[in-house]
Design goal:
Structural class: mainly alpha
Largest sheet: none
Order of helices and strands: HHHH
Number of domains: 1
Distance between the termini: 17 Å
Oligomer: single chain
Number of strands: 0
Number of helices: 4
Helix content: 55-70%
Shape: globular
Length: about 60
């Protein structure tokens, strides 16, 4: 999951009051700013959690 040091609880809380799409955007932008290692961790977490979405996004 993303709690592997990729995104902090405070960063997740910042997106807590936003609408679902906005929350996803905040998380994606936060991870992207952290660089390629964090982005790879996000992709791995998505592949583990939702194989259908990962396939649709051609992440697998």
């Amino acid at each position: 999951n993303l709690k592997r040091g990729v995104i902090t609880d405070d960063e997740m809380d910042l997106s807590g009051t936003a609408k679902r799409a906005d929350k996803a955007r905040v998380v994606m932008d936060t991870v992207r700013r952290k660089g390629s290692e964090a982005s790879s961790a996000l992709i791995s977490a998505l592949c583990e959690e939702d194989r259908w979405l990962s396939a649709e996004l051609k992440l697998m």
